[in-house]
Amino acid sequence: MKTKNIILSAFKKYGRYHRNSGELAAAQLDQTTLGKFVVRQEIFPCTIPLVGENRGRHLFERARTFNASAIICLGMASGKKGLCIETRTMNAINNEKYCPELSGQPIDSRFAYRRVLDLDLRVWHMDDLLIGRDKTELPPIKVSTNPGGGWCNHLIWQLRAAQLEDIECASIPFIFIHIPCSPECVGGNMEFKRQRKSTLKVSQIIQGLETILRIATI
Question: Residue 101: pLDDT above 70?
Answer without folding.
Answer: yes
